[in-house]
Please model this.
Amino acid sequence: PLISSYVVKKAQSFTRAERRAILEKTDCNMFNFPSSMVVVDLITDSGTSALFQQMWAALMLGDESYARNSWYYVFLDAIRDFTQRGDKPNKRYLSLFEGPESFEEIKKNFMEDEKERGFVNGGVFQLEHPNFFILPQGRCCENVLFESMRSYWKSEKSPLVLSNGLFDTTRANIKLREFDGVDLFLPEIFDDYPLDKIGKENPFRGNIDLPALQKALEKDSARTALIVMTLTNNTGAGQPVSMENMRAVRKLCEQHNVPLWIDAARITDNAALIKRYEKGYESKSIPEILKELFSLADGFHFSLKKTLANMGGVMCLKQDGLFDKKYPKIGDEMKKRQIIHYGNDSYGGMSGRDIAAVTVGLYQVVKEDYIYSLSLIHISEPTRLGMISYAVFCLKKKKKKK
Model:
């Protein structure tokens, strides 16, 4: 077996009548029904993951200092490893398992990191040009993002956010800030798929409809605030997006001067499906595919609660990218909102222990044996192909009228 279980959680047994009684009292509201009475809980994949033993070890080394806790700079560098370094990670976190930081290690945070750019500016430059934000979860990132963006738009018409499929909290935050969110699904996204092809090929039905996107940009590029690519396409039954589609979207973004944003909640799964099904990526590692995906984006937000940890979120802006240029000084606006609503920038509403666990977890979730075998439930169904799945959709047939 690929895993060994050392902790067992006992579940209470309830009768059908007992469940029905409570179900009626809660008006059949799944968010109000007590989890202790649920045998198989499919309500969400958010924050429900078990932790790796390495993450439990990191929890014991957590630092709850209010300002720059010992894991802060290590976490920053872990995000650089995850998004920019592919098969050549620094793995700076390992030094914290050996004992307190030495002067030389502390000095790296200010001397060597000063040169770092990309999604995570280094050293004092991060203070002068903030582009990395720790937050409690994905929807908090979306709140800060769209609240900060809104002040840059003064037109009478609501700005547009175009997407391959906006997640529900993303759409809610967009609407709250009086943007218009537009989903550009492929026309065939929910068509039946031949059962004999499941697990053998993948049409990447999470892709954005490129002709529809081009048409929308030609008509209203000046009104388009952002293009959000959700990887995988959660609203579209969790189907993946191809690298080819991402490159085409990037090209359109550059032509029309519209920033490209990634909702990276399940980007490791998307990378795994690219590796398995997209031509030319069979021999590439998951970290290298992630590096290429992130290279196409001007910014991203990342719920760390999906298969990684029980709490956490990160938002990053690419230094000197399209987003950074279209919304000058927006990092300062985001940092204000981060501190006011969630906490100091070194923890952003997360505990030091959670930051430690997440840092270590970023190196575990890119391993293929985890992604293909342990990350998700294997549910083969026509709209959600193959070995990677995290949602079940039950359709009730309409009764024929007599």
Notes: Residues 72-85 form the longest helix (14 residues). The radius of gyration is 22 Å. The longest strand covers residues 224-230.
